[in-house]
Amino acid sequence: MGKLMSIKSVETGMVLDMEIIDQKTGAVLVPEGITLTKSLIEKLKGNNVSSLIIREEEVPAALKNEGFTKEYSKMSEGLESVFEKAMQNGEIKTDEVMYQMEGFVSEVSKEADILTQMRLMKKTDDYTFNHSLGVSILALTLGKWLGYSEVQVQELAVAGIFHDIGKLRIPIDIVRKPGKLTEDEFDLMKKHSFYGYEMLQKTGEFSNGILLGVLQHHEKVDGTGYPNGVKADKIHDYGKILAICDIYHALTSNRVYKDKDSPLTVADYLKKESFISLDPYMTQVFLKNISKFYVGSKVLLSNGTTGLIRYIHPQDENKPIVQIGDKFLDFMKAQNVEILDILI
Ligand SMILES: [Fe+2]
Ligand SMILES: [Fe+2]
Question: Can you name the CATH fold of 2-55?
């Protein structure tokens, strides 16, 4: 059974559960069972198709990790309540989140496939909310890959959860604006890292590292970031870690003003930035390790078919070997198809 969805809500990677027929000629324009690509969605929009029947996703039971699901849900309830109260009076009472933190960190630290788990858990449409949990998971995981102590890993999880909390003090129509921000609006938006720092500092509950991480998550190692435009040696390691995880999570998610990019495109972008604005060593550790989660994942190709990632080359984790039926495509060599997205 499929479900009816507005064309505005469908995403690449979803599977069509209907045929699209030319009203005049009766010819099948798009057959049933096709995986939607960005260009196909655009084409359908252009043809005034307003809704589609989409195949309901069957999540294989084996993919769902019970422990992760439980801790993620508890944490997201805690965070929801912190956000709600902060919206009402601008103050944050963090107990509900802090109380869940240990269980959350220990479950995420087991390193189940966090990317798949995060995708399965995404429940609400609230970008800042999903993003806070996502960045927390990525930051604590990167801390582990960097060999950090348990205390540091926990601090990174906390800094990730709260890194954008200052956005609650920015007018919601600017935070959710679908188009490009004006210069004034962007200047206001940029204040969120300082606001967040201030809100957390007021509670008196957080270490210097957590506070600096939040304050500096938009600083760049070449000094082009904000709020203070400081360079690498003045940026706390937590700030550098959050910057990498923040960009990765933001670009691989749908935002109000832009559709998500494929994790491979984003990895390419991060690699380039690691020579300019991001910490090179930390970015390298992040990309090397995160790519291991992609083995076994389904990918959507530019010709509308799907395949499975079978191997990641250690020398370039962005060009995998993909199996399509009984054929293997090695993306280290030139191919006439592109990988558009990694599905589940
Ligand atoms: Fe931010
Ligand atoms: Fe962020």
Answer: Molybdopterin biosynthesis moea protein, domain 2 (3.90.105)
Ligand 1 centroid vs 329 CA: distance in angstroms? Answer: 38
Tell me whether the omega of the peptide bond preceding residue 227 falls within 30 degrees of 0, making it cis.
yes
Looking at the CA of 248, name the nearest ligand.
2
Q: Which amino acid is at 337?
A: V
What CATH class is the domain 66-292?
Answer: mainly alpha
For 90-102, write each residue's pLDDT tens digit: 778 888 888 889 9
Measure 243 CA to ligand 1 centroid, in angstroms. Answer: 8
CA 342 to centroid of ligand 1, rounded, Å: 25
**What pTM was estimated for this model as a whole?**
0.82
Q: Provide the residue ranges of all domains of the chain, joining segments of one domain with +.
A: 2-55, 66-292, 295-342
DSSP sequence for 220-286: -TBS--SSS--BGGGS-HHHHHHHHHHHHHHHTS-BTTBPPPPHHHHHHHHHHHTTTTS-HHHHHHH
Q: Ligand 2 mean position to 243 CA, how many Å? A: 8
Which residues of the chain have a pLDDT value below 50? none
pLDDT of residue 308: 92
| Predicted local confidence at residue 296, as pLDDT | 85
Buried (b) or exposed (e) across 287-311, using 16+ Cβ within 10 A?
bebbbebbeebebbbeeeebbebee
> Tens digit of pLDDT for each residue in 199-246?
999 999 999 999 999 999 999 999 999 999 999 999 999 999 999 999
131 alpha carbon – ligand 2 mean position (Å): 7
Specify the DSSP class assigned to residue 291.
Answer: G
Q: What ligand is nearest to the CA atom of residue 135? A: 2
Distance 250 CA to ligand 2 centre (A): 7
Cα 185 to Cα 245: distance, rounded to the nearest angstrom = 24
